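Lab notebook page, bench 4
Experiment: in silico fold of construct C2
Operator: M.H.
Input chain length: 295 residues
Purpose: comparison with the prior construct
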Amino acid sequence: MNAPLSNPILTSQAELIAQELGMKDFTASVEWIERFKRRHGIALRTVSGEVAAVDCTVTNAWKEHDLPSLLKEYREEDIFNPDETGSFYKCLPDKTLALKGERCTRGKKAKERMTVLIAVNMSGMEKLPLLVTGKLLRPRCMKNVKNLPVEYTAYKKVWMTGAIFENWLQKLDRKFLLQGRFIATVVDNCPAHPNIDDLRSIKFVFLPPNTTSHLQPCDQDIINSFKHHYRTRTVRKYLNLIKDKMSSAPTQPTSSETFRISVLGALYDMRSAWDKVTEQTIKNCFRHTGFLKVR
């Protein structure tokens, strides 16, 4: 799922798998995690990209001058943050259960990518339906399917484009206009987020360039929470496959190649994962980036 690894994530996944396998006395101790990392060649390194390059004077200035006026003008329920994330939806999460020698990054499954747009409001009480961009508009698994669990569109390179984003915003603008609401949409400054002038219910608020790791709520833990729940569902499905295989054909090895996820199945799993992201998680992420109303 293209999410960062950490010791707590490894611990959580190990204990989840042990629980599913009925290993009641298993504990993923620090020593066990270190042995696991050495055995599988896992190295946890500090990210040296945007986080390290953020200019704190810029972020502090935005928090001190721009953010207070935004919070004064709009209610918590009317301040939204949309953001995109990539999903290698067919890859087994973190390769915890993959066979030795298998890889996701350069394999066929890594090409099976979708882009997911998530959007939440500051109160944490309104999670907008996911917008998922796939490669094909009508893959075979969607034949005769009238209703999808999420909003879905397609682009051959599976990226978020300015046209897709604008179309999504125009629909959202009409929705809020009918509700009599006027909202602020806080977005990162990138080519996929063009400034749209003819919106009637939505005001654009652009974050300063290269500051999303510090100022964007979705980048704190909302996306990670969504991906964690998606990974959990994938692990459980794979474990169920192993159980079924062991029951029906115990002498035949189970390969991750026999574990298949269709685009439609992935959309349902994404919807379920999104439903599990809690209001409290969203609130905490907004607070962490300085979105805090003064009572």
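Observations: Residues 46-52, 94-107 have pLDDT under 50 and may be disordered. The first helix runs from residue 7 to 20.
Next step: discuss at group meeting.
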